[in-house]
Design goal:
Elements: H1 2-15, E1 42-45, E2 49-53, H2 58-79, E3 87-92, H3 95-98, E4 115-117, E5 122-126, H4 131-152, H5 156-165, H6 170-182, H7 186-197, H8 209-227, H9 230-242, H10 245-253, H11 257-278, E6 296-303, E7 309-316, E8 319-326, E9 332-338, E10 353-358, E11 361-368, E12 371-378, E13 383-388, E14 394-400, E15 406-413, E16 416-423, E17 429-431, E18 439-444, E19 450-455, E20 477-482, E21 491-492, E22 500-505, E23 510-515, E24 522-527, E25 532-535, E26 543-549, E27 554-560, E28 565-570, H12 585-603, H13 611-624, E29 626-627, E30 667-668, H14 691-694, H15 701-712, E31 715-719, E32 725-736, E33 740-750, E34 756-765, E35 771-779, E36 785-798, E37 803-818, E38 823-840, E39 855-875, E40 878-894, E41 901-915, E42 918-931, E43 937-939, E44 973-975, E45 986-988, E46 990-1000, H16 1002-1006, H17 1014-1017, E47 1020-1031, E48 1043-1050, E49 1053-1060, E50 1065-1076, E51 1079-1090, E52 1093-1094, E53 1098-1103
Parallel strand pairs: 2-3, 3-5, 43-44
Antiparallel strand pairs: 1-2, 1-31, 4-32, 6-7, 7-8, 8-9, 10-11, 11-12, 12-13, 14-15, 15-16, 16-17, 18-19, 19-20, 20-21, 22-23, 23-24, 24-25, 26-27, 27-28, 29-30, 32-33, 33-34, 34-35, 35-36, 36-37, 37-38, 38-39, 39-40, 40-41, 41-42, 42-46, 43-45, 46-47, 47-50, 48-49, 50-51, 51-52, 51-53
Length: 1107
């Protein structure tokens, strides 16, 4: 007894230092990842990073690892933490490829208690299609990993302690990562002003997901602007030590957290007031999009050339639709639906893309089965002509020529974003640009063979060697490309430090485009004849997508209003409108920093130099400057274009895109250098330095050493080898109806990509006699998922006199085929063996005990299962969506057909959100045993029920303590939850059960700010109704078909009495849930109703989540 108490104390203590699922260590349902391709991984290694890649993307991996190493010191200095281990970075060619990864599959951060999850230095990054966003993603993922390791990693002791004692809000970690990687960017600036405008900034700290990241990014930005960037590392380090972010703010900044949030709100509120003085809000009357959820984004909007229709595309977390809306009568028709809605994964926000080829033909580019597909939809015949674009990893935008026979694409080919010309009817492609710069948003200028596009290039050559992605700027300007020319030179239109993109040309002289030149993205107009641009719109929210029908003077826009995207249509629209707005605070700070940085760069070489040294330095720089020789477009394997103009009506394509094999060689050329230094920067007409000039190293010994170190530090490539590491460690308390209070220990191991997984565990009762041992390995890298599992289950059962040992051992293999990310079918054949042994009595009998001979039975069988899971877990015991399961299992008695039986069951659950995380949850379950030796269901009670009671009376009760063996015991199924009743209140071969719960997270629903207490944050009130019945034979439709047998004894007489009763048991009541002592506890007060009589209320105390 003393040993048992000590053991209980040890496990109780350890449970408070873990975080896990006390009732189920793993989900019973679960989503899927579908692999459409195989990944042959290799990796490069450096001092701080291992970068993994596939499909001959070594060049991209090299650029990534060089950029990460170059940023490593800056990031670690900013957050004040160096990582313990080398970071592993997995580079995917696209988001579509990333969605095939198994990492994080069915992982949930909302656990009941008892799980320690080990922080692993792995990150996955999908190439977004542009260098600018690629650099941003690299920094974001690296920072997020470092901050998570800083807070939850370190030594094993730190992991145990931080898992339960450190509970940081979502905005704290994600916001820090967002700020370090993106700074004060336009997206965050827009979002915060929207929060202020909609009066929702007071509740900003309660937001989750991407919204929490933007809020946190703005808070960290305010801290950096007001108190300096050094405060960031101080706050993070103090939060790790004292395990409280609010106290760390007080210690670091000297003000309370409440005061910080008040100052932060006022800071951005004042900016919004200034913006409102010069900017306007789109009219509600101009909104043409239908009512929709805020998760839906509009990827593209296009007006037909005749102005009669508007096409637009919706993306709902990966599931997209394309619709055409008549502008005459407002009717809509859906022409295409594709993709899969995913949760917890990145989705491509640019898919699908649409463009009109003519008045009756709409082009659509989307993703299907992991590859890009180009559809041409005919409005007259309602037919779709598909074509695969499998050469490209990412497609950013496209546009048709005037006759619709050609299309210009901005696409990613082998990790490089360039422009491509394709035929709309035939499989022909021509590459137009070929360098590391980003070229996107191309469009044809009417009545010409000229293309206008946006790019972050710093020179006018289309085939340029760029020394590393770090040198590529983040600003974009407009360029012209003439299809009639044979040279590789483009014509620059705008020269600004802003982002100018999405050009639409009225004619060769007048080009409209989007720009964040004043801080908020609005429409600008550029007049090529005069070289003058003007601002056309002054909306207070950035324009995300737009299109102009110049003939009918109509403007369609996608903008945020009221915290969600909508489509607005303005008609007629004044194309010649001119407005001027002052720059936002963000833009003013950005321009000031650019000026300071430029002055530092210009004055740094002169410090400490004599006149002679300065002259020699200038001469060396002049002699060492190189300029890239233009490389013709046909270096990708095509013939040189003829000098005469292109006939776009009868254009004949050359060879399709081959693998580029030519080596681009830079030749030396001398240029003059202007020694004068300008005091200011003209941000309206900024002239970029030559790329080669900016990338020249200085002649210092330190720089020569760093350059040599940079070249020699990268080694590889090496092949990927699966290596198993621990994923987590779980301790559970399990209250088993047959074995009593038990402890379960479980661990999970997998390789870095989680293609190979191992689960193993042991469960033991406190009598050390009963328990489980199990282990499972999963093989997941291909389309079909395979598994193998072994189980051993032991039950010690006290019969009337003797103790009996029931053993069930099973070996099982399985194969699962995901049909979608939500649905899969599974087949699991198995071999099983039961053994029952009479162990005699532990009491001292007056006569020698009689032992029954052991009973053994071998089984061969198979389990088939259909699983659907479209649910999303948003909090502890808070789920949204639908999930369900249908399964059938057959046990064939080997050598004894009379022992064969089968089992079938259906379990369907739906969780409907009502208001502010208030959810109504409903569940329906039914199952049946049949065959030669059918087993039984027992109805009543709850899982993990403290102080549970079992009904052992009644004829045929599978839990009755009979003197002989009970072959039903091993396979008996407990049907729960039916609150207010004992286990086995009813029993039979079949069962039906339904539950309904109203779940109210009380404090979260009422509170307008963050909730620091784990107890109050997860407090939940429930109202419930349970109803169920169990039967053998015909279903109990009414009381005439249902009887209850009771045994009455009077003297030497025994009588069996059958009562006609209401077959349905039901209960209703209220409950309370929250985290206590590291575990999720439930308290329910239930009023059971049996045979139409309401019984006395009963209190149930249980561990774990509801259904």
């Amino acid at each position: 007894m003393k040993c048992a108490c000590v053991l209980f104390g040890v496990f109780l203590f350890s449970s408070f230092h873990f975080q896990a699922n006390a009732q189920q260590a793993r989900e019973n349902f679960g989503k899927n990842r579908i692999q459409y391709k195989q990944f042959d991984w290799q990796y490069l290694t450096s001092e701080n990073f291992d970068v993994y890649y596939y499909d001959n993307r070594r060049k991209v991996a090299t650029e990534a690892i060089q950029y990460l190493e170059g940023e490593f010191d800056r990031i670690t200095d900013l957050i004040g933490y160096p990582p313990y281990l080398k970071t592993k970075v997995f580079l995917y060619n696209s988001i579509t490829d990333l969605q095939q990864s198994n990492i994080g599959l069915n992982h949930t951060e909302f656990n009941v208690g008892g799980e320690t999850e080990f922080v692993k230095p792995y990150v996955e990054i999908a190439h977004p299609g542009t260098v600018d966003q690629f650099k941003e993603q690299l920094i974001y993922k690296m920072t997020e990993l470092m901050v998570n390791e800083m807070m939850f990693g370190g030594s094993l002791k730190d992991m145990f302690q931080n898992a339960v004692l450190l509970n940081l809000p979502e905005w704290f970690i994600k916001g820090a990562s967002g700020y370090v990687s993106k700074g004060w960017n336009a997206e965050m600036d827009d979002y915060i002003r929207q929060l202020v405008r909609t009066k929702k900034i007071n509740k900003a700290l309660k937001l989750t997901g991407d919204e929490a990241e933007l809020v946190g990014q703005s808070i960290w930005n305010y801290i950096a602007e007001k108190y300096g960037k050094s405060s960031i590392s101080n706050i993070l380090n103090y939060a790790r030590v004292i395990r409280n972010e609010q106290k760390s703010v007080l210690i670091t900044l000297g003000i309370s957290f409440k005061q910080l949030i008040s100052d932060w709100q006022q800071y951005y509120s004042e900016m919004e007031e200034k913006v409102n003085q010069s900017y306007i809000t789109p009219l509600d009357s101009a909104k043409v999009s239908n009512r929709h959820r805020k998760e839906i984004i509009f990827t593209t909007v296009k007006l037909s050339p005749d102005g009669k229709n508007m096409a637009y595309a919706e993306n709902d977390r990966g599931r997209f639709v394309v619709k055409i809306k008549s502008l005459n009568n407002g009717k809509e028709v859906t022409i295409l639906t594709s993709g899969n809605k995913v949760f917890g994964q990145d989705v491509n926000p640019n898919v699908p893309l649409i463009s009109w080829a003519d008045n009756n033909t709409l082009g659509v580019i989307g993703v299907k089965y992991g590859e890009y597909v180009f559809w041409l939809y005919d409005l007259t015949t309602k037919s779709k002509l598909p074509r695969e674009l499998d050469r490209f990893s990412n497609i950013r935008s496209f546009d048709f020529s005037g006759n619709g026979r050609l299309a210009i694409l901005s696409a990613d080919f082998e990790g490089q974003n360039d422009l491509f010309l394709i035929s709309s009817r035939r499989d022909r492609t021509r590459r137009l640009t070929n360098d590391l710069y980003d070229d996107f948003d191309p469009s044809f200028i009417p009545n010409s063979n000229t293309i206008v596009f946006s790019s972050n290039r710093t020179n006018d050559t289309t085939n340029t060697i760029v020394k590393g992605i770090k040198t590529i700027p983040a600003n974009y300007n407009l360029y012209l490309y003439d299809l009639d020319t044979t040279t590789n030179v483009v014509n620059r239109l705008t020269n600004t430090l802003s982002k100018d993109y999405y050009p639409l040309a009225l004619d060769i002289n007048n080009i409209y485009y989007l720009s964040d030149q004043r801080g908020i993205v609005n429409i600008f107009k550029y007049d090529q004849s005069t070289g003058i641009y003007s601002q056309v719109t002054n909306y207070n929210s950035s324009i995300k997508e737009y299109d102009i029908d110049f003939t009918n003077r109509a403007l369609a826009m996608v903008m945020d209003k009221g915290m969600k995207e909508d489509i607005f249509l303005t008609k007629p629209f004044n194309l010649n409108r001119q407005v001027f707005t002052p720059a936002t605070r963000r833009k003013e700070v950005q321009q000031a920093k650019a000026i300071v940085e430029r002055r530092k760069q210009e004055t740094a070489p002169q410090k400490g130099l004599s006149i002679k040294e300065l002259i020699n330095s200038r001469l060396r720089e002049k002699d060492s400057v190189t300029q890239v020789t233009p490389v013709p477009v046909d270096t990708v394997g095509q013939k040189r274009m003829p000098a005469d103009s292109i006939d776009t009506d009868n254009y004949i394509f050359e060879d399709e895109i081959p693998q580029p094999k030519d080596t681009i060689i830079a030749q030396s050329d001398k240029v003059d250098i202007d020694v004068n230094i300008d005091e200011t920067i003209n941000t309206e007409d900024y002239v970029f330095e030559d790329e080669a000039t900016r990338s020249q190293p200085s002649e210092t010994f330190l720089n020569r050493y760093m350059k040599a170190r940079e070249v020699t530090r990268i080694r590889g490539p090496f092949p990927y080898e699966p290596k198993f590491t621990y994923e987590n460690l779980i301790t559970n308390f399990v209250i088993d109806p047959l074995r009593g209070f038990s402890v379960r220990l479980e661990t999970q191991m997998n390789d870095m990509l989680e293609n190979y997984r191992f689960f193993g565990g042991i469960q033991t009762a406190f009598d050390w006699k009963s328990g489980d041992i199990y282990g499972e390995i999963q093989y997941l890298p291909h389309r079909v998922d395979y598994s193998a599992r072994i189980d051993r289950k032991v039950i010690f059962w006290d019969a009337n006199v003797n103790q009996q040992k029931y053993t069930w051992q099973k070996v099982e293999v399985g194969a699962s085929l995901p049909l979608t990310v939500r649905t899969r079918i599974t087949l699991k054949p198995f071999l099983g063996y039961t053994r029952i042994v009479d162990r005699g009595s532990d009491r001292s009998p007056s006569v020698p005990p009689v032992f029954l001979p052991p009973a053994e039975q071998f089984y061969a069988g198979s389990k088939m299962e259909l699983v659907y899971d479209n649910s999303l877990t948003t909090g502890l015991n808070i789920i949204e969506g639908t999930r369900g399961k249908i399964n059938f299992t057959h046990y064939e008695g080997m050598g004894n057909k009379q022992a064969s039986f089968s089992h079938a069951a259906i379990d369907i659950r739906h969780y409907q959100p009502l208001y502010k995380e208030i959810v109504i949850a409903v569940r329906g379950f039914t199952g049946t045993f049949f065959g030669n030796a059918p087993k039984s269901y027992v109805l009543g009670g709850m899982d993990n029920w403290f102080g549970n009671k079992i009904n052992e009376n009644g004829t045929g009760n599978p839990l009755a303590r009979i003197e002989g063996y009970n072959p039903n015991l091993i396979f008996t199924e407990f049907a729960t939850s039916l609150r207010g009743f004992d286990y086995a209140t009813q029993y039979g071969r079949s069962v039906a059960l339904a539950n309904a719960e109203l779940r109210i997270p009380l404090i979260r629903a009422l509170s307008g700010g963050p909730i620091t207490s784990n107890f109050f944050r997860n407090m939940q009130l429930t109202g419930f109704y349970d109803i169920g019945t169990s039967w053998t034979g015909k279903p109990p439709i009414n009381s005439n078909t249902s009887t209850q047998t009771r045994i009455e004894k009077e003297g030497p007489f025994t009588a069996e009495i059958k009562d006609f009763i209401n077959p349905w048991l039901y209960s209703y009541g209220v409950g309370f849930r929250s985290m206590m002592l590291g575990y999720y506890m439930k308290f329910d007060l239930a009023w059971p109703v049996e045979n139409y009589k309401v019984q006395d209320p009963r209190i149930f105390v249980t561990l774990g989540f509801d259904f």
